[in-house]
Amino acid sequence: MQQIWTLRTEKERKQEEEGESVLVKDTDRWKGYSPIGIASLIAGKIAAIGDLETVARQLGMYMVTVIVGLVIHGGLILPAIFFAITRKSPFAFYSGIFQAWITALGTASSAGTLPVTFRCLEENLKIDKRVTRFVLPIGGPPSHGRHSP
């Protein structure tokens, strides 16, 4: 990157920085109007709905379908896979990681949950520290994009 800057003249670099500054200021100015614009778009779509009661009922059924699917997946399928692979009770595993699970729900942060997850896996489930210290950090940060350490 440094080589690219040295090939450009100081004037070109200054113009580029000023252009970026203008774009950032313009973006910041328009950001304040976003909630109004989004609310207007949503209100327009709601107003265009002919039978709001039917659409609300359909949306409710969709929500119920998703929740039932998640319960089946998390309550039946994943425990069955766990049992088939390990021949151990999935409920003992769930009780061992319960504190980490509750912390994750409360903080909504995978990085914030890591210390509790380490403790649950190492102390409650007796998983080797070498395994937890290698595997757990890999699972969290990739979802953070460019902000991960």
UniProtKB/TrEMBL annotation:
It is a multi-pass membrane protein. Keywords: Membrane, Symport, Transmembrane, Transmembrane helix, Transport. One of its GO terms (molecular function) is L-glutamate transmembrane transporter activity. It is found in: Membrane. The keyword Lyase does not apply. GO terms for biological process: L-aspartate transmembrane transport; L-glutamate import across plasma membrane. Pfam families: SDF. One of its GO terms (cellular component) is plasma membrane. The chain crosses the membrane at residues 62-85, 97-121. Gene3D superfamilies: Sodium:dicarboxylate symporter. SUPFAM superfamilies: Proton glutamate symport protein (SSF118215). It comes from the Eukaryota. Belongs to the dicarboxylate/amino acid:cation symporter (DAACS) (TC 2.A.23) family. This is Amino acid transporter. It comes from Crenichthys baileyi.
